[in-house]
Amino acid sequence: MTKKGLYFCGAGVTSSPHRNLVATAADCLNGDPADKLAFAPQVLKNAAGTLEAPKGVYAVKRQGNRSLVWTGSDSGGAASSAAVGFAMVDKGIKGDQLEDTAPGHRLLTDAGHTHKGARVAGHSAAKTQPAAPCIGDTSEVNVAGAPNTFLRLDCGPAGAGIAVGSVFIADYDAKTRVGSLIGVSQRIAAAESPSAAHSTYFGTTVQALYDEAVGGSKPTLTPPITPPGASPSQPAPRAKPSGVSSPSPSPAKKASRLVKGAVDSRW
Description:
Helix content: under 10%
Shape: globular
Structural class: mainly beta
Protein backbone atom coordinates (compact mmCIF):
# COMPACT_ATOMS: atom_id res chain seq x y z
CA MET A 1 0.00 0.00 0.00
CA THR A 2 1.21 3.44 -0.85
CA LYS A 3 -0.25 6.58 0.59
CA LYS A 4 -2.70 6.45 -2.32
CA GLY A 5 -3.77 2.82 -1.93
CA LEU A 6 -2.81 -0.84 -2.46
CA TYR A 7 -0.85 -2.36 -5.28
CA PHE A 8 0.59 -5.79 -5.83
CA CYS A 9 3.72 -7.24 -7.44
CA GLY A 10 4.81 -10.80 -7.97
CA ALA A 11 7.77 -12.02 -5.90
CA GLY A 12 9.53 -15.22 -4.85
CA VAL A 13 11.40 -16.62 -1.87
CA THR A 14 15.16 -16.73 -2.44
CA SER A 15 17.40 -19.13 -0.51
CA SER A 16 19.66 -17.18 1.86
CA PRO A 17 21.70 -17.85 5.03
CA HIS A 18 19.01 -16.39 7.29
CA ARG A 19 16.08 -17.75 5.29
CA ASN A 20 14.25 -14.43 5.07
CA LEU A 21 14.91 -12.97 1.61
CA VAL A 22 12.48 -12.17 -1.20
CA ALA A 23 13.28 -11.34 -4.84
CA THR A 24 11.15 -9.15 -7.09
CA ALA A 25 11.52 -6.41 -9.69
CA ALA A 26 13.40 -3.33 -8.49
CA ASP A 27 10.48 -1.13 -9.50
CA CYS A 28 8.32 -2.88 -6.91
CA LEU A 29 10.64 -1.82 -4.08
CA ASN A 30 11.60 1.71 -5.10
CA GLY A 31 9.36 4.50 -3.95
CA ASP A 32 8.48 6.58 -0.93
CA PRO A 33 10.63 5.47 2.06
CA ALA A 34 7.50 5.73 4.21
CA ASP A 35 5.78 2.98 2.20
CA LYS A 36 5.27 -0.25 4.14
CA LEU A 37 5.95 -3.52 2.37
CA ALA A 38 4.84 -7.07 3.09
CA PHE A 39 5.18 -10.45 1.38
CA ALA A 40 2.45 -13.09 1.21
CA PRO A 41 3.66 -16.53 0.01
CA GLN A 42 0.13 -17.28 -1.18
CA VAL A 43 -2.91 -15.10 -1.79
CA LEU A 44 -6.36 -16.43 -2.67
CA LYS A 45 -9.83 -15.01 -3.08
CA ASN A 46 -12.50 -16.84 -1.07
CA ALA A 47 -16.12 -17.46 -2.01
CA ALA A 48 -17.13 -14.15 -0.45
CA GLY A 49 -14.67 -12.29 -2.66
CA THR A 50 -12.30 -11.43 0.18
CA LEU A 51 -8.55 -11.80 -0.24
CA GLU A 52 -6.91 -14.28 2.11
CA ALA A 53 -3.30 -15.16 2.82
CA PRO A 54 -3.45 -18.77 4.10
CA LYS A 55 0.32 -18.96 4.59
CA GLY A 56 0.56 -15.69 6.44
CA VAL A 57 2.03 -12.27 5.71
CA TYR A 58 5.66 -11.35 6.36
CA ALA A 59 6.40 -7.68 6.84
CA VAL A 60 9.56 -6.33 5.23
CA LYS A 61 12.00 -5.34 7.97
CA ARG A 62 12.48 -1.66 8.66
CA GLN A 63 15.32 0.39 10.10
CA GLY A 64 13.87 3.60 11.42
CA ASN A 65 11.55 4.83 8.68
CA ARG A 66 13.23 2.84 5.87
CA SER A 67 12.55 -0.63 4.55
CA LEU A 68 15.44 -3.11 4.28
CA VAL A 69 15.51 -3.49 0.51
CA TRP A 70 18.35 -3.69 -2.00
CA THR A 71 17.79 -2.49 -5.57
CA GLY A 72 21.11 -0.82 -6.39
CA SER A 73 19.28 2.32 -7.45
CA ASP A 74 21.29 4.68 -5.27
CA SER A 75 24.35 2.63 -4.35
CA GLY A 76 26.17 2.99 -7.68
CA GLY A 77 28.67 0.40 -8.86
CA ALA A 78 27.87 -2.74 -10.77
CA ALA A 79 24.57 -3.42 -9.03
CA SER A 80 23.00 -0.12 -10.08
CA SER A 81 21.65 -1.62 -13.33
CA ALA A 82 20.43 -4.95 -11.91
CA ALA A 83 16.68 -4.19 -12.39
CA VAL A 84 15.96 -6.76 -9.68
CA GLY A 85 15.51 -6.14 -5.98
CA PHE A 86 15.79 -8.08 -2.74
CA ALA A 87 13.87 -7.49 0.48
CA MET A 88 14.51 -8.87 3.97
CA VAL A 89 11.38 -9.87 5.87
CA ASP A 90 10.55 -10.25 9.55
CA LYS A 91 9.50 -13.49 11.18
CA GLY A 92 5.87 -14.54 10.98
CA ILE A 93 3.40 -14.12 13.83
CA LYS A 94 4.33 -17.60 15.11
CA GLY A 95 8.05 -16.77 15.16
CA ASP A 96 8.75 -18.73 11.99
CA GLN A 97 11.22 -17.68 9.32
CA LEU A 98 9.87 -17.26 5.80
CA GLU A 99 11.59 -20.41 4.52
CA ASP A 100 9.86 -22.44 7.23
CA THR A 101 6.65 -21.72 5.33
CA ALA A 102 7.81 -21.47 1.72
CA PRO A 103 11.04 -23.08 0.44
CA GLY A 104 13.59 -20.72 -1.09
CA HIS A 105 14.75 -20.99 -4.70
CA ARG A 106 18.50 -21.03 -5.37
CA LEU A 107 19.83 -17.92 -7.09
CA LEU A 108 21.45 -18.91 -10.39
CA THR A 109 23.56 -16.36 -12.27
CA ASP A 110 25.72 -16.43 -15.42
CA ALA A 111 23.97 -19.60 -16.57
CA GLY A 112 23.20 -18.58 -20.15
CA HIS A 113 19.91 -17.56 -21.74
CA THR A 114 18.51 -20.96 -22.72
CA HIS A 115 16.71 -23.00 -20.07
CA LYS A 116 14.45 -25.93 -20.94
CA GLY A 117 11.23 -26.28 -19.00
CA ALA A 118 11.52 -22.95 -17.19
CA ARG A 119 8.41 -21.57 -15.59
CA VAL A 120 6.94 -18.34 -14.36
CA ALA A 121 3.89 -18.24 -12.14
CA GLY A 122 2.24 -15.33 -10.48
CA HIS A 123 -0.88 -13.30 -10.16
CA SER A 124 -2.26 -11.63 -13.23
CA ALA A 125 -1.90 -7.88 -12.98
CA ALA A 126 -5.65 -7.59 -13.59
CA LYS A 127 -6.94 -10.48 -11.41
CA THR A 128 -6.89 -11.50 -7.78
CA GLN A 129 -6.60 -15.23 -8.43
CA PRO A 130 -3.24 -16.90 -9.25
CA ALA A 131 -2.42 -17.09 -12.92
CA ALA A 132 -1.76 -20.47 -14.52
CA PRO A 133 1.98 -21.21 -14.57
CA CYS A 134 3.70 -20.67 -17.89
CA ILE A 135 6.16 -23.46 -18.73
CA GLY A 136 8.50 -23.35 -21.71
CA ASP A 137 12.00 -22.67 -22.98
CA THR A 138 13.69 -19.33 -22.45
CA SER A 139 15.65 -17.56 -25.17
CA GLU A 140 17.80 -14.47 -25.55
CA VAL A 141 16.28 -11.25 -26.82
CA ASN A 142 17.45 -7.66 -27.21
CA VAL A 143 15.15 -4.92 -25.98
CA ALA A 144 15.32 -1.49 -27.56
CA GLY A 145 16.99 1.00 -25.24
CA ALA A 146 18.13 -1.61 -22.71
CA PRO A 147 21.87 -1.89 -22.04
CA ASN A 148 21.70 -5.65 -21.41
CA THR A 149 20.04 -8.65 -23.02
CA PHE A 150 16.87 -10.22 -21.65
CA LEU A 151 15.38 -13.66 -21.14
CA ARG A 152 12.15 -14.27 -23.04
CA LEU A 153 9.54 -16.92 -22.24
CA ASP A 154 6.58 -17.22 -24.61
CA CYS A 155 3.60 -17.96 -22.40
CA GLY A 156 0.71 -17.76 -24.85
CA PRO A 157 -2.59 -16.87 -23.16
CA ALA A 158 -1.05 -17.48 -19.72
CA GLY A 159 1.38 -14.62 -20.25
CA ALA A 160 -1.17 -11.88 -20.68
CA GLY A 161 -0.90 -9.58 -17.69
CA ILE A 162 1.46 -11.62 -15.48
CA ALA A 163 2.40 -9.28 -12.66
CA VAL A 164 5.73 -7.47 -12.63
CA GLY A 165 8.14 -9.21 -10.26
CA SER A 166 6.88 -12.77 -10.84
CA VAL A 167 9.88 -15.08 -10.68
CA PHE A 168 11.39 -17.21 -13.48
CA ILE A 169 12.29 -20.69 -12.18
CA ALA A 170 14.47 -23.31 -13.91
CA ASP A 171 15.27 -26.87 -12.76
CA TYR A 172 12.00 -27.00 -10.84
CA ASP A 173 11.48 -30.07 -8.64
CA ALA A 174 7.78 -30.73 -8.05
CA LYS A 175 8.47 -32.78 -4.90
CA THR A 176 10.57 -30.18 -3.08
CA ARG A 177 8.91 -27.21 -4.84
CA VAL A 178 12.38 -25.72 -5.27
CA GLY A 179 14.22 -24.63 -8.39
CA SER A 180 16.77 -22.12 -9.62
CA LEU A 181 15.84 -18.45 -9.69
CA ILE A 182 16.91 -17.12 -13.10
CA GLY A 183 14.81 -13.99 -13.54
CA VAL A 184 11.94 -11.73 -12.47
CA SER A 185 9.19 -10.53 -14.78
CA GLN A 186 9.54 -6.94 -15.96
CA ARG A 187 7.38 -4.60 -17.97
CA ILE A 188 8.79 -4.13 -21.48
CA ALA A 189 7.75 -1.15 -23.57
CA ALA A 190 6.51 -2.09 -27.04
CA ALA A 191 7.16 -5.81 -26.52
CA GLU A 192 6.99 -7.82 -29.74
CA SER A 193 4.53 -10.21 -28.11
CA PRO A 194 2.21 -9.22 -25.25
CA SER A 195 1.99 -12.90 -24.27
CA ALA A 196 5.73 -13.20 -23.63
CA ALA A 197 7.28 -12.73 -20.21
CA HIS A 198 10.65 -10.96 -20.02
CA SER A 199 13.42 -10.70 -17.45
CA THR A 200 16.76 -8.95 -17.47
CA TYR A 201 19.62 -11.46 -17.67
CA PHE A 202 20.92 -12.52 -14.27
CA GLY A 203 24.67 -11.93 -14.42
CA THR A 204 27.32 -10.53 -12.12
CA THR A 205 25.29 -7.42 -11.26
CA VAL A 206 22.49 -9.50 -9.78
CA GLN A 207 24.93 -11.72 -7.91
CA ALA A 208 26.62 -8.62 -6.48
CA LEU A 209 23.29 -7.24 -5.31
CA TYR A 210 22.36 -10.54 -3.67
CA ASP A 211 25.73 -10.61 -1.92
CA GLU A 212 25.07 -7.11 -0.60
CA ALA A 213 21.69 -8.17 0.78
CA VAL A 214 22.89 -11.29 2.59
CA GLY A 215 26.16 -9.67 3.68
CA GLY A 216 24.55 -6.82 5.59
CA SER A 217 25.74 -3.93 3.43
CA LYS A 218 23.93 -0.62 3.06
CA PRO A 219 20.33 -1.14 1.94
CA THR A 220 18.77 1.16 -0.63
CA LEU A 221 18.03 4.63 0.77
CA THR A 222 18.95 3.46 4.26
CA PRO A 223 21.74 4.72 6.57
CA PRO A 224 24.69 2.28 6.83
CA ILE A 225 23.66 -0.54 9.15
CA THR A 226 24.11 -4.23 9.71
CA PRO A 227 20.63 -5.76 9.34
CA PRO A 228 19.57 -7.91 12.31
CA GLY A 229 21.03 -11.41 12.06
CA ALA A 230 23.13 -10.71 8.97
CA SER A 231 26.78 -11.76 8.96
CA PRO A 232 29.29 -11.37 6.13
CA SER A 233 31.06 -14.49 7.39
CA GLN A 234 28.19 -16.71 6.34
CA PRO A 235 28.58 -17.75 2.68
CA ALA A 236 25.77 -17.08 0.26
CA PRO A 237 24.40 -20.13 -1.57
CA ARG A 238 25.09 -20.11 -5.28
CA ALA A 239 23.82 -22.83 -7.55
CA LYS A 240 25.88 -24.25 -10.37
CA PRO A 241 24.46 -24.17 -13.90
CA SER A 242 22.88 -27.51 -14.62
CA GLY A 243 22.24 -27.18 -18.32
CA VAL A 244 18.69 -28.08 -19.18
CA SER A 245 15.76 -29.41 -17.27
CA SER A 246 12.57 -31.24 -18.13
CA PRO A 247 9.13 -29.84 -17.38
CA SER A 248 7.54 -31.39 -14.31
CA PRO A 249 3.83 -31.85 -13.67
CA SER A 250 2.03 -28.56 -13.18
CA PRO A 251 1.62 -27.77 -9.47
CA ALA A 252 -1.54 -26.46 -7.93
CA LYS A 253 -2.19 -22.89 -8.96
CA LYS A 254 -0.69 -20.62 -6.37
CA ALA A 255 1.58 -17.64 -6.38
CA SER A 256 3.41 -15.21 -4.19
CA ARG A 257 2.63 -11.55 -3.97
CA LEU A 258 4.56 -8.61 -2.67
CA VAL A 259 2.09 -6.22 -1.12
CA LYS A 260 3.07 -2.61 -0.74
CA GLY A 261 1.20 -1.62 2.34
CA ALA A 262 0.57 -2.07 6.00
CA VAL A 263 0.22 -5.63 7.23
CA ASP A 264 -3.37 -6.45 8.11
CA SER A 265 -3.32 -7.94 11.61
CA ARG A 266 -6.27 -10.16 10.71
CA TRP A 267 -3.95 -12.37 8.58
